[in-house]
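Fig. S4 source data, part A: sequence.
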Amino acid sequence: MPCYRCGARQTDPVRGASPWQRGVRDESQVLICPDCQRLHDLDLDACSTCGSVALICRLGEVECRSCGAVRMARSDSGSALAGSVAPPAPGLSAEVEAALNRVLGRA
């Protein structure tokens, strides 16, 4: 999944914790690259209990990692329910095909 702001894709991680951050935007789990994390206006959803943006989506629920509050994801938002698979980024299938061709030695 690419960064929701700039579209950068994760590379193979080095040992240790990933520098990428998870967040929730419009009821969907998103990733934020290290460069975009430096921005102050990430436009992420916030916890209605404590105001934190440290949210995660799973199985139709949104959980705050700061205070532990859990709520059901709203299905009336413009995006799919949390926990669902996001549509692939444009051009992703072409990149995957090119990578397979390189690995499999296809012309």
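Fig. S4 source data, part B ends here. The radius of gyration is 16 Å.
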